[in-house]
Design a protein that fits this description.
10-stranded antiparallel β-sheet; globular; mainly beta; 150 residues
């Protein structure tokens, strides 16, 4: 009787652990790296947020990263047409990049954010653009992120 109970319990555990959808999860701090005006940056802390916009009533994804010196941070944002979805989003399709440095703040005049993987807990993608601080334009290239969504 004990053997049957033990086998039944093991089968139940096996079914419970193998039947769930596996959603990809990254390390707690996430990752975000890119080049801005030719200089490489890597965020020590990166995370994502998915939320409903109150103004236009659509889903949005925001990815944020902060460097170890706390002098630089980046924000990527995409407002989706319907729901969180993979794809390539440009400035015309509500993609925005903001970057704050010791030189001041820069906002994208042209941005491309490619979401390669996304679900309710994880997002991964690439990004680039031209950013402007009101006086000069500088390129942001080779951007990559992998974040857990809070």
């Amino acid at each position: 009787m004990k053997l049957n109970s033990l086998l039944g319990f093991l089968c139940l555990c096996l079914v419970a652990f193998t039947s769930c959808d596996k959603e990809e999860v990254v390390k707690a701090s996430g990752s975000c790296e890119f080049k801005f005006d030719g200089k490489s940056y890597s965020a020590n802390t990166s995370y994502g947020e998915a939320f409903d916009t109150t103004v236009v009533g659509k889903k949005a994804l925001r990815v944020q990263g902060v460097t170890s010196t706390l002098n630089n941070f980046i924000i990527l944002q995409v407002i989706f047409k319907d729901s969180l979805a993979t794809g390539t989003y440009t400035t015309a399709e509500n993609a925005t990049i903001l970057f704050s440095t010791t030189e001041g703040g820069f906002e994208s005049t042209s941005a491309t954010i490619k979401i390669t993987s996304i679900n309710s807990k994880y997002a991964e993608g690439e990004f680039n653009g031209i950013l402007n601080n009101g006086e000069t334009e500088k390129p942001l290239t080779d951007g990559k992120f992998k974040v857990n969504i809070n």
